[in-house]
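Quick start: read one record
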Amino acid sequence: MRAEQPAPKQAFHRTGVLGRGGLSAGHDAFRVVVTPLCPGSAARVARAAVRAALARTGTAPDDVGDAEIVVSELAANAERHANGPYELRIHWLGGVPAWCEMVDGGLDLGTIPAILALLHASASAPPMSLDENGRGLMLAHRLSRGHCCAYPTTLSDGGGMGKAVAFALPCPMR
């Protein structure tokens, strides 16, 4: 029996306002909430963090569910294909969660950009070449309506290099 992971610890990574002068502290217009993820429970904790972020924003329940599925797939992919540490970053803009990154300690983007390029190019049907690999990315691409990408990044804890697979969070209903 594996031990339960304690509730996710969240740390504010950046807070401030983006403008001509860069990031200025002291204003809540932009912030990033970082949730460290442990192997074995990364998908569950990531789903809970996204659900909590979207809970009070007026986001449609189906869209919240889609965001949970996407982050769960990305967390599972990170655990399966990359080294830790793992972290989830939710970027807030004007008090609304807008962008989500699943970050891992892997340095190589590998085939992720090629898979995403295939997905962007084939709007109607998934490419047949994704039968074995890339189904998690395909799901992320579909459920985020094509607003996903991958890029090198720096880990929040310790500053080492890593990569992020990221997607746009659903907009709240207005």
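The first helix runs from residue 42 to 55.
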